[in-house]
């Protein structure tokens, strides 16, 4: 008994596996919303960039507050809001798309001298108000002092307006003859990329006056996330890295006992189970590759 009491005493009292029972009935959209929320917090508070920035708060709360909130009510994330955010970021909602005005201005900051595509637009923007509004929108985003609604409005304008459309509307010649600039998400599954390219190609040719992932996530995938305790692990891991002010950090063994209480000393060892399976699977579940594919599937489900 003493062997189990000590590590279990390190687990926060608010952690309760029964709070995660609801994820057994999650659809793709609900899995996306919950995994996206955790991926966002891990990146916002624990990435190298975040560490370099020093103390960070989100909605007035630091990482410890968010960790405790997540343990108190782990399945409370509004998946519809996550899907709306996914849809707002047009570059991620389709795997093959036109180069957007947002891409043009973003590229301008990466090239010295400015990218030639951007330079041509910059010259025209000084004379043409219809193009200048895109410059204005990007400048507002850079200031980073907008309300959420204004930020979303400017971002939508830039992401949802293609370079090809602006060029056609303003008689700007880009490319060579029938060429078009596209952006491709290299993290997309092959099936999604091919499907989106066919859709883009037909649309592009029609506009020009010319005629012309591995499999989806299944219930088996979701059941695997439930069985391997992906959400409980992520929440304890985040709490451990941000809010744990107790006697010591949670080890793989301690976490294993907490999320697999019925077979804590069975075979395999709980520490090995966390190290070899649970941790890699959980981190993969909040990776950009998985979230991109899952977000696309979830978006289609809620349409």
Description:
62% of the residues lie in helices and 2% in strands. The protein has 303 residues and is mainly alpha-helical. The protein folds into two domains: 2-80 and 217-302, no CATH class; 96-184, no CATH class. A two-stranded antiparallel ribbon has the order 1-2. α2 (28-46) packs across α5 (79-88) and α9 crosses α10. The termini are far apart. Residues 1-5 have low confidence and may be disordered.
Blueprint (SSEs and pairs):
Layout: H1 2-9, H2 28-46, H3 48-53, H4 63-72, H5 79-88, H6 90-93, E1 96-98, H7 101-108, H8 116-125, H9 129-143, H10 148-159, H11 163-169, E2 182-184, H12 190-207, H13 219-227, H14 230-242, H15 252-259, H16 270-285, H17 288-302
Antiparallel strand pairs: 1-2
Summary tags:
disordered N terminus; elongated; 2 strands; two-stranded antiparallel ribbon; mainly alpha; 303 residues
Percentage of residues in DSSP E strands = under 5%
Approximate helicity band: 55-70%
Order of helices and strands: HHHHHHEHHHHHEHHHHHH
Quaternary structure type: single chain
Brief characterization of the structure:
This protein has 303 residues and is mainly alpha-helical.
């Amino acid at each position: 008994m003493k062997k189990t009491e000590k590590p279990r005493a390190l687990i926060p009292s608010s952690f309760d596996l029964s709070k995660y029972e609801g994820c057994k009935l999650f659809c793709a959209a609900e899995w996306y919303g919950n995994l996206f929320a955790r991926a966002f917090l891990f990146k916002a508070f624990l990435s190298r960039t975040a560490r370099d920035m020093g103390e960070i708060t989100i909605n007035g709360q630091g990482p410890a507050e968010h960790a405790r909130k997540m343990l108190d009510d782990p399945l409370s994330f509004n998946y519809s809001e996550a899907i709306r955010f996914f849809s707002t970021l047009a570059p991620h909602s389709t795997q093959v798309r036109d180069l957007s005005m947002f891409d043009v201005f973003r590229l301008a900051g990466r090239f010295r001298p400015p990218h030639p595509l951007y330079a041509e637009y910059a010259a025209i923007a000084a004379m043409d108000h219809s193009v200048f509004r895109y410059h204005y929108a990007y400048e507002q985003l850079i200031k980073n002092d907008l309300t959420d609604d204004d930020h979303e409005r400017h971002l939508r304008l830039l992401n949802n307006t293609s370079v090809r459309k602006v060029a056609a509307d303003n008689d700007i010649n880009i490319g060579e003859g029938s060429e078009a600039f596209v952006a491709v998400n290299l993290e997309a599954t092959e099936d999604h990329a091919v499907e989106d390219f066919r859709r883009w190609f037909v649309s592009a040719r029609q506009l020009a006056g010319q005629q012309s992932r591995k499999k989806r996530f299944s219930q088996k995938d979701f059941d695997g996330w439930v069985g391997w305790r992906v959400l409980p692990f992520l929440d304890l891991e985040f709490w451990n890295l941000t809010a744990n002010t107790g006697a010591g950090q949670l080890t793989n063994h301690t976490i294993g006992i907490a999320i697999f209480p019925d077979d804590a000393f069975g075979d395999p060892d709980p520490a090995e189970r966390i190290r070899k399976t649970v941790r890699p699977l959980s981190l993969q579940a909040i990776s950009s590759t998985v979230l991109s594919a899952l977000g696309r599937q979830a978006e289609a489900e809620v349409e």
